[in-house]
């Protein structure tokens, strides 16, 4: 990194170990990777989008979440595909296209699926689940999930 002309403090910060659940990563234009503070509220996403607005729909957020209950809402990313990589447990991913086409995918540890841009998706946890999400957060929309 020193060859990139970065100050020592920046090099030390980039080289220090971090955990993905506590420090999501922004992948930006020109191949840069920026460690982020922990996601601690809905406001975090607004601040993230404002900070990286210049990357527009080309920026990607890499985050990791653990959950043991079914999601309470659907979400949709209109500007890019999302990769969902299950790294522990088993989850059922439900997808719905703009035309109403549906797909259900069961992911076990090591499996991944792609939520296509513009497709609504939600998930059910059949066990304690940990998953990594790689997405364009720009423009993400949520809607309530009806009780089953």
Description:
With 148 residues, the protein is mainly beta. It has two helices and eleven strands; from the N terminus they run H-E-E-H-E-E-E-E-E-E-E-E-E. A hairpin with a 5-residue loop joins strand 1 and strand 2. The chain is globular. The model has no long low-confidence stretch (mean pLDDT 89).
**Nearest-integer average pLDDT:** 89
Structural class: mainly beta
Which geometry do the CA atoms define?
A: globular
Strand segment tally: 11
Query: What does the main sheet amount to?
Result: 6 strands, antiparallel
Strand order within the widest beta sheet = 2-1-3-10-5-8
Summarize the structure.
The chain is mainly β. It has helices spanning 8-15, 42-51; strands at residues 25-27, 33-35, 60-67, 73-76, 82-88, 90-96, 102-108, 112-115, 120-125, 129-135, 141-144.
Furnish the topology, listing elements before pairings.
Elements: H1 8-15, E1 25-27, E2 33-35, H2 42-51, E3 60-67, E4 73-76, E5 82-88, E6 90-96, E7 102-108, E8 112-115, E9 120-125, E10 129-135, E11 141-144
Antiparallel strand pairs: 1-2, 1-3, 3-10, 4-9, 4-11, 5-8, 5-10, 6-7, 6-9
Name its key features.
148 residues; mainly beta; 6-stranded antiparallel beta sheet; 12% helix; 41% strand; globular
């Amino acid at each position: 990194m020193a060859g990139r002309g970065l100050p020592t403090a920046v090099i030390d910060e980039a080289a220090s170990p971090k955990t993905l659940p506590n420090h999501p990563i922004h992948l930006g234009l020109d191949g840069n990777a920026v460690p982020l503070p922990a996601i601690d509220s809905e406001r975090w996403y607004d601040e993230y989008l404002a900070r990286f607005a210049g990357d527009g729909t080309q920026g990607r957020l890499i985050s990791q979440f653990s959950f043991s209950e079914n999601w309470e809402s659907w979400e949709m990313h209109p500007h890019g595909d999302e990769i969902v990589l299950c790294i522990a447990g088993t989850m059922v991913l439900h997808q719905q296209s703009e035309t109403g086409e549906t797909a259900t995918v069961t992911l076990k540890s090591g499996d991944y699926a792609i939520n296509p841009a513009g497709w609504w998706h939600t998930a059910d946890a059949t066990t304690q689940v940990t998953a990594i999400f790689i997405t364009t957060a720009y423009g993400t929309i949520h809607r309530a999930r009806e009780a089953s």
